[in-house]
Design brief:
By secondary structure, the protein is mainly α. It is 51% helix and 0% strand. The mean pLDDT is 77.
């Protein structure tokens, strides 16, 4: 697990969840890297799957959505 992901999971997400809960809101984390790199490698399908998942999250969410791109990726543009 990357240092950035570990910090988010251990420190940032719990704080944001607590804040949202105090306002009667639900904070849900969707990590687009979990599982994708093991399924698809060197293919642009992973980008399409990620975009579809973002659209799905927007459909089921009653509020704002945040997309964060952190760390380095194993994919390099041609």
């Amino acid at each position: 697990m990357s240092g950035e992901r570990k910090a988010l999971l251990e420190r940032a997400y719990p704080e944001v969840q607590s804040f949202c809960r105090s306002l009667g809101l639900v904070f849900e984390v969707v990590d687009l890297n979990w599982g994708i790199q093991n399924i698809l490698f060197g293919d642009h399908e992973d980008c399409e799957i990620s975009l579809q998942e973002i659209q799905s999250c927007k459909r089921v969410s009653a509020g704002p959505a945040f997309v964060v791109s952190a760390g380095c990726s194993s994919w390099s543009p041609p």
